[in-house]
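Sample entry (497 residues):
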Amino acid sequence: MPIRAVWRPQWHTWALVGLAALVSIDVASPRLLHGHWLLVTPCLLIVGLLAVRRLWELPPAITMCGAVVLTIFSGSWSKIGLGGLPLDRLLMMLVLLAVFLRAPGIARIPRLQLRNIHLLLCLTLIYGFASAAASGTLSDETSILSLVDQFGVVPYLMFLVAPAVFAGERERNLLLVALVGLGIYLGFTAIFESFGPHSLVFPSYIVHVDAVLPEARAGGPFQSSIAEGFATFACATAAVIAFVQWRGQRRRYFAATSAVVCAIGCFLTLERGVWVAAIVATVVGALATRQGRRWLIPGISAGAVVIVGALLLSTTLANKVSTRVNDTPSVWVRQDQTSAGLRMAAARPLFGFGWNRFTRDNLEYFRQASGHPMGGYSQGGSEGGRAAAPLHDTYLASVVELGLVGASLWLAAMFWGIGGAIFSRGPAGLRPWKLGLIAIAVFFFVVALFNPYQAPFPMLTLWVWAGIALGITPGATRQQRAKTAAQPGGEVTWVPA
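Predicted structure, serialized as tokens:
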């Protein structure tokens, strides 16, 4: 692959960037430039600039792996003591800048390829922002962040750059290492969170959050059992791929340990939707390969033995599982929400109520059921003094808020993007990633039946994985290209696929 021209900023450019950052800090958070922070903040800024300058020289795969891993703390940076500094978003922004401004690290990676699916993703985003603007939620910070992180801006952009960034086997193996290591952390954190010792749980805000929650479920750094379940399952999938691909006993032991503790962590979420999704995704993923079909029955049997043994050995875990399985009030809430959501969808079928409007407009669509108390509704943006409960069905929530038009766009983008990545042609090295994508995509689509919009990590991981599985179209000649986009250095190529 030919080496492309790159841009290495001079020292004065970095100085201007640092000065601009200092001014931004003064405007956004003046307290960080008063008292002892007047000395600490500039020092931290210098250290950060040096780190960014070093990352600018490295392949963007390293930065992207860091962004994916750090997304597990998205929304919780202030609880860690970083003053709300979103390190995950900063790293993702650095990845995009490195790719489009031709950082030295992209000299040997392929050019980006625009496909028809990217046009559909762009149209979906336009519709989402138009819906938020029309419904008056575009000025709301929560709505904007959910559009950026959960609906698709960041995941779709990472889907665009991932095929080029992870085009090489070395870069893909780097992401495997990151996910396997993350699985070790998430799995053991879930175990310590559920059984102790709590002193081993890091960061400590996880334990503090668990102390005020009525259910003792493993939510990890996400503070959400749904996101924890997806993350542990995705990391377990990466660990299985690593176990098959890696050579060396220690590496394979490391991957096997990650897969085991992730499976335990997925179970400890005590979320019925996660359990169902994990079982269905495992079965579908195993049926996709001959070796998987061979090990399906023994694997399910071994898993059942381990779970039953754990329940017999731990009365605490058995009581938690029993309580969760027989938790009928949560089922009533979902029934009431589903009925209200269907009424809202019937009231405005085409364009819906607008992005993030369910929790604000749902009260008048609830009806008192005969067999249980009504729950799941919102009044004045809250429910009984708590945060307003979202609709626990992603598909129905899409219809309620975006209408049939927007929901169809979103689903078409999901199925085309992920399905296209699975069935696209590519080198043999991408086959494990395609098989892994089948498993985590099935998990995502099944758990979406029982729960609201996913947290940033599941969406980001799903689309990055899809981008890797999609790969770069081989042999894209000039006759095959519809056109070449006029980007700096010719960074983007159009591939009609």
